[in-house]
Write a sequence for this structure.
């Protein structure tokens, strides 16, 4: 399959932004305009509810929502299924006392998802170091009605974990820059990149992996953090399982101590898990999620979750 063909096999995913509208209201609006809950590939107007992500809908890939009133009013957000996993796995509490961080936020799809899961309560600090992407983030947050978010135009790595402002932070989402090798409409570009000198490619991935590891270790230094989700849209073990392994072996993880959350807390019904040969035990591999482009009707993706505590995790289901 070419990248375009693979992209055509992926439904158009639409997340209902429960901050701006109820699922009932959105469904009613869709049905009133001729959409039918008959499955995404039954006809151009057919759609379905996703089986893993609450409030996610699947449509025919050729349907465009750019001019749709629901999109313009922020009631729906166009977001690939796999990229809905990190916020779900982080599962921030919906309470006035909740304080969490999205360390790498722009353009803000996961930030608005986190905000919706928190029912717009508590406080969500959203870091973005790039100035242009930061203004996109702010626009997107205001369109999505996320009033519990404080966007911060700064490098997450330069923030002091012991700053009293962040002392109550318990949950951190890390979705840092990666090679993007899982993004389906980039597969053609990737095939070209394959012909790139292998040492150049390895060097680039190693640099990304070193940065990703630094981000996880920095997150582990926040004194009250108890749950950290690390995700990428890469298909390379160098940026995924190997980064997680190195993070688990770091001084920061030992000090926590941090370990991987068990499968029961990381979308247990999603069948595709981490690469066993890249991890220290089958349980570790089972604790993390992979999505493969062309296989899972999503982009390529990876999700892992670190939890603080020395107690053995509850046994699997
Ligand atoms: N989570 C976003 C979403 O779902 O819409 C996508 C995040 S994108 C993969 C990574 C972002 O992190 C980029 O916008 C990049 O500029 C930003 N970034 C990279 N390093 C950073 C750092 N040290 N501190 C803050 N932001 C950073």
């Amino acid at each position: 399959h070419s990248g375009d063909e693979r992209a055509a096999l992926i439904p158009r995913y639409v997340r209902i932004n429960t901050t701006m509208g109820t699922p009932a209201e959105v469904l009613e609006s869709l049905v009133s305009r001729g959409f039918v809950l008959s499955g995404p590939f039954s006809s151009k107007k057919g759609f379905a509810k996703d089986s893993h992500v609450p409030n996610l809908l699947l449509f025919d890939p050729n349907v465009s929502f750019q001019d749709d009133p629901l999109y313009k009013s922020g009631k729906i957000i166009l977001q690939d299924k796999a990229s809905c996993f990190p916020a779900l796995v982080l599962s921030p509490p919906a309470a006035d006392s909740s304080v969490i961080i999205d360390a790498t936020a722009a353009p803000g799809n996961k930030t608005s998802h986190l905000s919706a899961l928190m029912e717009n309560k508590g406080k969500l600090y959203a870091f973005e170091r790039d100035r242009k992407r930061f203004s996109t983030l702010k626009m997107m947050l205001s369109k999505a009605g996320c009033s519990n978010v404080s966007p911060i135009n700064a490098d997450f790595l330069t923030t002091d974990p012991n700053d009293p402002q962040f002392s109550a932070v318990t949950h951190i989402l890390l979705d840092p820059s990666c090679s993007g090798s899982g993004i389906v409409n980039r597969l053609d570009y990737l095939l070209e990149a394959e012909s790139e000198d292998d040492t150049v490619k390895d060097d680039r991935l190693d640099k990304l992996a070193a940065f990703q590891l630094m981000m996880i270790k920095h997150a582990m230094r926040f004194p009250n953090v108890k749950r950290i989700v690390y995700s990428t849209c890469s298909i390379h073990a160098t940026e995924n399982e190997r980064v997680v392994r190195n993070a688990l072996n770091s001084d920061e993880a030992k000090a926590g101590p941090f370990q991987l959350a068990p499968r029961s807390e990381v979308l247990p019904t999603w069948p595709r898990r981490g690469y066993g040969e890249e991890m220290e035990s089958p349980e570790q591999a089972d604790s993390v999620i992979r999505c493969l482009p062309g296989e899972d009707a999503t982009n390529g993706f990876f999700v892992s979750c670190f939890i603080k505590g020395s107690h053995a995790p509850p046994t699997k289901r």
User: Anything to note?
Assistant: The CA atoms of residues 120 and 148 lie 5 Å apart. The chain has a mean pLDDT of 92. The pocket of S-adenosylmethionine is lined by residues 83, 104-110, 127-130, 133, 155-157, 175-177 (CB under 6 Å).
